[in-house]
Amino acid sequence: SPYSSQRRHASKHRFFVVELSQALFDFVIRLLPAQEEMAVKEDVRKLLERLIRTIEPDSRLLSFGSTANGFSLRNSDMDLCCLIDSAERLSASDMVTMLGDLLERETKFHVKPLPHARIPIVKLSLDPSPGLPHGIACDIGFENRLALENTRLLMCYAMIDPTRVRTLVLFLKVWSKRRNINSPYQGTLSSYGYVLLVIYFLIHVKNPPVLPNLQQMPPLRPISQEDTHIGGHNTWFFDDIELLRQRWQSSNTDSVADLLIDFFRYYSRDFTYNTGVASIRGGLLKKDSKGWQNELAAGRYNDSRERNRFCIEDPFEIDFNVARCVTKEGLYQIRGEFMRASRILAMRPRASVALAQLCEE
Ligand code: GTP
Ligand code: MG
Fold first, then answer.
1. Measured between alpha carbons, how far is 36 from 42 in angstroms, rounded to an integer?
2. Residue 299: which pLDDT band, with cuts at 50, 70 and 90?
3. Signal sequence: where (predicted)?
4. Ligand number, closest to the Cα atom of 68
5. Which domains are present in the chain?
6. Digit-coded pLDDT (tens) for 178-208
């Protein structure tokens, strides 16, 4: 009867989803950095901090990006930010030049200072060695306080629902790297962009939501303008996660696999790429309302249109499109990959086959 065939269908789907969720956990766990790797990275950070203090005694070297937000994979690079607490400090580009010279003299790192980049940084790397089979790659920037704050925001989201959020994010990072759609320099999207897509989906697309909107929750006590703004950007968000856990619980019970299937479906079919802006702060916004697409000016300012093919608002720098590097071809490729992933999962193969196909290089 149609009724029993529907039931068979439903139970086959449930089996697929349970098996796939388990496979996703197992897959991701194997890609986490070993304790050893974390320890080596922390040693490197301390060593570099000691050296930098010979130039600027009042400086601190903090890690941000994946090493600090809970979304790090094995051998991921290390993002470091130097903060200088004294009033009279050198400019970022002078610091880059001086630190470059110092590290070249005093360490075994390969050093590449980029003092004239939009954000001046020193790039460092260590060749692989027996204790460090993949070497280390590291960027040191200066005074990038917004990056430290957005790292903390992502970390807080990861802490609210560690299992589902981290599994989804880590899987999508691996998937996007293996499918070759994780390189802003080649017209596709950064890891940071993919993380924002996941969080946007969990706050604003899923109903009931898996995550609350930390930037829109009422503060516990009055807050002053200067406590919450960095360079004119409002960086306030609710960060007392312990308290949040006592007061807020998602009523969404979807498994990781359910969420992954919906994620791919949403971004292959439903997200309005031509007009929409994904904003974790404000939900689905319009390109028009942000001045990110101007039909009339399209002919004259061709490259501004090119910069806004795909729009993801930065959580704090709201004038900044995190997906600005995505080109027409890049977006075509990314959407093609979302569709491919949806197609694979719709066939409901065995979980191990599904993951192998999804991440095929
Ligand atoms: P992997 O290096 O691939 O492991 O990922 P990741 O999590 O370190 O992300 P990514 O290297 O893309 O970015 C590292 C950090 O740099 C992010 O957490 C942000 O803090 C910052 N960042 C990266 N891209 C942008 C950007 O376009 N705008 C801003 N404001 N910050 C960015
Ligand atoms: Mg990184």
1. 10
2. low
3. none
4. 1
5. 35-147 (3.30.460.10), 161-211+250-358 (1.10.1410.10)
6. 999 999 999 999 999 999 999 999 999 999 9
Ligand 1 midpoint to CA 241 (Å): 22
Q: Is 326 in the pocket of ligand 1 (CB under 6 A)?
A: no
For the CA of 77, the closest atom of ligand 1 is 2
| Protein residue whose Cα sits closest to atom 17 of ligand 1 | 65
Non-local CB neighbours of 302 within 8 Å, separated by 6+ positions: none
Q: Mind giving me the DSSP string for 142-178?
A: ES-HHHHHHHHHHHHHHHHSHHHHHHHHHHHHHHHHH
Q: Is 316 in the pocket of ligand 1 (CB under 6 A)?
A: no
Instruction: Kindly state the tokens that stand for 339.
Output: 């569709």
| Residue whose tokens read 């010279």 | 101
Atom index in ligand 1 nearest the CA of residue 72 equals: 4
pLDDT in tens, 312-339: 999 999 999 999 999 999 999 999 999 9
What is the position in ligand 1's atom list of the atom closest to the CA of 190? 12
Residue nearest to atom 23 of ligand 1 (CA): 192
What are 158's two structure tokens?
């990861």
Alpha helix ranges (H) inside 216-347:
225-228, 241-247, 256-265, 287-290, 302-307, 328-346
Higher pLDDT, 13 or 25: 25
Query: Quick one: the chain helix, strand, coil %, rounded to 5?
Result: 50, 15, 35
67 lines ligand 1 (CB under 6 A): no
